[in-house]
Design brief:
single chain; about 70 residues; mainly alpha; 2 helices; about 30% helix
């Protein structure tokens, strides 16, 4: 059994440029990590997006500022 498929190839950098430059995503794009908590005391973390996870905070200290 065979099937003909159409394959599309795009430059990933161009795709990212398109997403970042799209005004529809302006209010939902995140460029820095955030900490969210379930309680006012900050004892219970809420991790529901990649920018709220610990790995993004850890990655920030690895990137040189200049």
């Amino acid at each position: 059994m065979t099937e003909d498929l159409e394959l599309w190839i795009r430059d990933p950098v161009e795709c990212i440029k398109e997403l970042i430059g799209n005004p529809a995503f302006r209010d939902v794009m995140k460029y820095a990590p955030e900490k969210h908590y379930e309680d006012r005391e900050g004892q219970h973390k809420r991790i529901d997006e990649m920018w709220t996870a610990e790995w993004w905070w850890e990655l920030q200290v690895r990137i040189p500022l200049s």
